[in-house]
Design goal:
The protein has helices at 5-9, 13-20, 32-41, 75-84, 106-117, 140-160, 172-177, 199-207, 323-329, 334-339, and strands at 2-3, 27-29, 47-49, 69-72, 90-93, 123-127, 166-170, 185-186, 225-228, 231-235, 253-258, 275-278, 281-284, 294-297, 309-316, 319-321. It is an alpha/beta fold. Helix 2 packs across helix 3 (32-41) and helix 5 runs parallel beside helix 6 (140-160). The longest helix has 21 residues, at 140-160. The structure holds pyridoxal-5'-phosphate.
Amino acid sequence: MAVVKSNAYGHGIEQTVGALRGFADWFGVNSIEEAVRVRQIDAETPLLVMGANDVESYLHLREMKHRPELVLSSIDAIESLQARAPGTKFHLKVDTGMSRLGFHGATFDAVLEYLALHPELPWAGLMTHFANVEDVTDQQYAQKQLDYFAIAKAKALKAAGNRPLLFHSAASGAALILPSARMDIVRVGISLYGMWPSRETRISARSMPGADLPADFDLVPALTWKTRIVHINSVSAGTPIGYGCTHRPVQDTRVAVLPVGYFEGYDRRLSNKSHVLVLGCRAPLLGRVCMNMIMVDITHIPGATVQTEAVLIGTSGSETVSADDLAGLSDTINYQVTTAIQSQLPRVLVRDST
Ligand SMILES: *Cc1c(COP(=O)(O)O)cnc(C)c1O
């Protein structure tokens, strides 16, 4: 399953679904609104809505020819779905240790009893989600979740009668390093875009006993985020640059202004910290990230002019700035860096000729 929620992790949901149509067996989204967007590009690939949606939005499902399937976590939600869009298939979520969505303990036994009494309901799957695969190299907690899920699966098979169920648990982290978590479907998001879920997962893929990826397996980021220089300004030594006058260059400096700021998704915590790439050279940020602009030092890049490209995430010549680099500098994770790229910015799909 190609997970394309949150504008395909910032990559553009339309472009991503268009590129993966025919390759992915499933698409996964968070909301019914996203499901509607996927259906505008792809009319029939199986589609799973994994988030909790307002029951009023179930009404939109009626008009859809190839309906998405929903993940549900309460008997109320099952009844609301059957009332508003009868016949829509659903998967039950089991909470095996995340304490977010899902049935557990008595609520799980109750829903199984309810579903056994209603064999006409289109129950199609059982799924769970891991809480602690990416942050560790020791998978004890995930193993506990898997054990709990195995018990849930045995109970579900009894209650299902002749309804065939799909079982699934793995997001990228577990899909990469826990073969026993792969089951019927792997729900891959971050790794689909060529990013590792975390450093711990990357290390585990190489060294954890039981991990089975080929030795030369690696991920290559799919995304480049670029802009162009819109203005160049010569600033003499000692003159402050930007809000708060947080940077004063020690020498005369050529400053390029780029039309991207925190509104466009360039995190303000990167102020005075990150680099962009211009003509294969690193250009350090000068001063604070503004709402719609940043300033960078191009004193050492004499070839740069107005209109020259600047790479915010990606590679230029032999230099790279990755989403992981920016995540490290702004104290977050690569997931947040790319999903933050404002959805109105144009996305261009570039097909690799190989
Ligand atoms: C977002 C999501 C995924 C994908 O997670 P990645 O770590 O990006 O692969 C899988 N399953 C569920 C339920 C999700 O919400």
